[in-house]
Amino acid sequence: MSDFAVELRNVIKIFPTPEGGQVKAVDDVTIHIKQGEFFSLLGPSGCGKTTSLRLMAGFEWPTNGEVYIDGKLMGRTPPYLRPVNTVFQSYALFQHMTVFQNVAFGLEMEKVPKAGITRRVEEALEMVKLSGMGRRRPKQLSGGQQQRVALARALVKRPKVLLLDEPLGALDLKLRKEMQLELKALQEQVGITFVYVTHDQEEALTMSDRIAVMNKGKALQIGLPVEIYERPNCRFVADFIGETNFLSGTVKKVSKEKVTVFIPALSMEIDGIGHGSFSAGQNVAVSVRPEKIRLADDDGKPVSGLRGTENLLHGKVVTTAYIGSDTRVDLDLGHDVRIRAWEQNDISTLDPEAYYADGDAVRIYLPYENTLVLPEDVS
Amino acid sequence: MTTAQAPGKAVRRFSLKKVLRESSVAQGLFLIGPTNTYLIVFMVIPLILVTVLSFLSRGTYGEVVYKFSIESYLRLFDPLYAKILGYSLLVGLLTTVLSLVIGYPMAYYIARAPARQRSLYLFLILLPFWTNFIIRIYAWIMILRSSGFLNSFLQWIGVIHEPLNILYTPTAVLIGMVYEFLPFMVLPLYTSLEKIENAQLEAAADLGAPPWKAFLRVTLPLSVPGMIAGTILVFIPAMGMFVVPDLMGGAKTMLIGNVIRNQFLTARDWPFGAAASMLLMFLTMVFTLYYTRKAGFGEELLL
User: In whole angstroms, what is the distance from residue A187 CA to residue A177 CA?
Assistant: First the structure.
């Protein structure tokens, strides 16, 4: 058994366009997915995540590069000979078959004996909580139930890898949240490698062991959810995952991790952490997540708990939005620069003085270790 | 309330607009009216006429005598007519089966073709309808006769040395019938095949089905409605066809359609012709009903 369930090595996929041109749907992607991992391909629509999944399933063949599944080079192996199964975005259930027949289909193709089929189908239906629904038709089921049938139909084959193409996309928010947890629990229970395509960053963060963030056919960053969120490697990843504030500037000075960036819009320098190599004069984006900004009234009184390494800016509150757990404060730094900070409401009070109000002058602290210097793009 | 209307002048005039606005029954009748009128004029009344006619008798000079008689129906039990009926049934079934066998790959090909080519192919399927049916049949005669295009060609390339005798045989009738009815099979088949999502076939492949198994287990069952609709659309008119056997079958091929036509136009025995029509209608109906009960009603017929 290979260490990796799925490997894409320098995979390129080019499609012809109806106008006679070409489009690079997947552009030199290399991904190693470990056995038993819950791996997500995350990105906006058209980023190449679904094409990457279809390359693993065998619905598409790479224009260049190799796809390995369980250590075996796939080449032009057709889907019906690959040890993977897919849960389709549209479910693609067979409408002319019952739920039982749908789930049994894959086992019949493997020529499993009849008794074995009945037992395994029933087990699979039980696993997705659809026991007793075997005689219904897909159309008689709700969206969530159809989704479970699609899952059972794929899992009953005991594939090496389960490929899921935005399987929760058609469900409403509440059901989606429930299914996220259920899917994750199911994956841990069966121990099968899941490759999960989604454009929902929260979904990816909740469920995945590791995530590949994709854009324009490239895998920009591959890492743990915490790495993707806390240590994005470029402007796009920081922007796509969660919320953040950007200040554009040029590198002034680099000393080890500490990068000093000149922000022309504010005519000031900001110190931040740069992971990777930077050189003076390089155009960069400084990223600070709104929950990591510290605010204080601009009244000259000392602020507790500061390390002294924070970047200090001055600004005015533009608007505030109280959302319970925290208050979202939009700030104007002057020169048309705006940033957003989230102040946690960690003291229970009704006193309006305890909250920021429109027009308040504030001191804005950007802690040095939470201020990330990012290249505009990964090459 | 001050009354502005002069007494006695409040004549309630009938207003169609008002009735239509207020009564849902009137709305329904209004909407279905044209269809119903059409059906009554062109189907119900002729059907009643034929039914009545079939129970009358024939005068010496071929005129209709208004005297009740079941004579015409009794004559249908003549073994001669039973044979013709059986033969018509056979030709009808063969036409249907051949249309299905030839039409399925055509419909499949069109349904799987790139979207832009599909409309071209559909157009080509419908193109023959722009030419008169009789002219097209004569074209077939030109092709099939002893010194026709087909024989000339086959002799030229040396496949045969004596011309094949196709025209004025049952084979020619079948060729003509299949040619005429093929579009009625292809179109409903296309409709049902085109509706099958590619994801369904991908799912079958994903679950381990090689292409031919995916075809048998997914494509074929999902196209059953189109097959039923096409079968009905071909079988019913094929049973009553008389032009093709007349022109391409010579005197040798007699179908029930020819019998009926001859009674009305040549033998001038309208009551017997009407009775034969009733029998044909009855048999076709029984056949179709039995078939749709067994196979389900082809919903593609409604599209």
Answer: 16
Average pLDDT of chain A to the nearest whole number: 92
Task: Please name the CATH architecture into which domain A4-230 falls.
Answer: 3-Layer(aba) Sandwich (3.40)
Q: How far is B296 from chain A (nearest CA, A)?
A: 13
Question: Which residue out of B196, B197, B206, B220 would a mutagenesis test of the A interface target, given it has the greatest number of A Cβ atoms within 10 Å?
Answer: B206
CATH number of A244-379: 2.40.50.100
Which among A220-229, A291-300, B162-171, B253-262 has the top mean pLDDT?
A220-229
Q: Which tens digits make up the pLDDT trace of B244-261?
A: 888 888 766 778 888 898
Pick from A216, A198, A195, A199: which is nearest to A27 by CA? A216
**CB neighbours (10 Å) of residue B131?**
10
B197 contacts in A (CB within 8 Å)? Answer: 90, 92
Q: What percent of chain A has pLDDT over 70?
A: 99
- Asked if B200's CB is within 8 angstroms of A94's CB, the reply is yes
pLDDT of residue B124: 92
Quote ipTM for the complex: 0.85
Contacts of A94 in chain B (CB under 8 A): 200, 203-204, 218
* Structure letter (DSSP) for residue B217: I
- Looking at chain A, the domain(s) classified CATH 3.40.50.300 span 4-230
pTM of the model: 0.81
Q: How confident is the model at residue A378 (pLDDT cuts 50, 70, 90)?
A: low
Please, what are the domains in chain B? 8-44 (no CATH), 72-302 (1.10.3720.10)
**Chain B residues in contact with chain A using a Cβ-Cβ cutoff of 8 Å:** 197, 199-200, 202-210, 213, 217-218, 221-222
Contact (CB<8Å) B205/A154: no
Higher pLDDT, B198 or A377: B198
B114's CB contacts (< 8 A; 6+ apart) are: none
Q: CA A152, CA A127: separation in Å to the nearest integer?
A: 8
Point out the residue among A86, A93, A110 whose CB comes nearest to the CB of B206: A86
Chain B neighbors of A106, CB-CB under 8 A: 207-208
C-alpha atoms less than 13 angstroms from C-alpha of B254 in its C-beta half-sphere? 13
